Amino acid sequence: MFAVVKTGGKQYKVVENDVLTVERLPGAAGETVTLDEVLLVGDEKGVKVGTPTVAGTVVTAEIVEQTRGDKIIVFKKKRRHNYRRKRGHRQDLTVLKVLAIGAAKAKPAAKKAAPKATAPEKVPEKAKETPKKTPAKKPAAKQAETASKTKAAPKTTKAKAAPKKAAAKATTPAKKAPAKKAAPKAAKAKSAPKSKA
């Protein structure tokens, strides 16, 4: 009997007692893992293809070890641009040994524990006596002030708008005088070329 299983974004054809390396799966060595994404199951009777998975079929495997793959060097280069990047990578892997291929075992129903007869919890007396505090309300005077601030006064005529512009122009500082130029550097003594005489 064989099956095609999907795990880690890849598909694997497995047979009982196969040892295969897959992408990292959670668990420690010795634990069992069930792979429930079985895409195809085949035996001497025939092949059963799932849509997309075969319902009620799982592959049970044991984790042999958690390991890492070989180092891969990732090298990027753009010629004539002085661009070079070198990076290494090791993929995390899990080695599995397939134990069984078959129908999923029905999980035993979880037994519901009988409700325990316990005494009702005692609440401290202080908690009962202290009333809940409510947020204090604003005094009426402050509420009136905030209400008057929120109401916008109706705009009047454009005549008032013009003085604001004039006032804005008056408040802007006059243009600064241009910065003084740096004093010329002391001229080196001009020496006439010496003539050989």
Furnish the topology, listing elements before pairings.
Layout: E1 2-7, E2 10-15, E3 19-23, E4 32-35, E5 38-43, E6 46-49, E7 57-68, E8 72-78, E9 83-89, E10 92-103, H1 125-129, H2 140-150, H3 158-171
Antiparallel strand pairs: 1-2, 1-5, 3-10, 4-7, 5-6, 7-10, 8-9
What does this structure look like?
- With 197 residues, the chain is an alpha+beta fold.
- The chain has a domain at 2-103.
- Helices cover 15% and strands 35% of the residues.
- The chain contains three helices and ten strands, in the order E-E-E-E-E-E-E-E-E-E-H-H-H.
- It has helices at residues 125-129, 140-150, 158-171, and strands at 2-7, 10-15, 19-23, 32-35, 38-43, 46-49, 57-68, 72-78, 83-89, 92-103.
- The strands form three sheets. Strands 2-1-5-6 form a four-stranded antiparallel beta sheet, with no helix packed on it. The protein has a four-stranded antiparallel beta sheet with strand order 3-10-7-4, with no helix packed on it.
- A hairpin with a 4-residue loop joins strand 8 and strand 9 (83-89).
- The chain is elongated.
- The mean pLDDT is 77.
Can you give keywords for this protein?
197 residues; alpha+beta
Number of helical segments with 4 or more residues: 3
Task: Please state the structural category.
Answer: alpha+beta
Helix-strand pattern, N to C? EEEEEEEEEEHHH
The coarse overall form would be elongated
Number of strands: 10
Report on the biggest sheet: 4 strands, antiparallel
Give me the side-by-side strand order of the main sheet. Answer: 2-1-5-6
CA radius of gyration is 42 Å
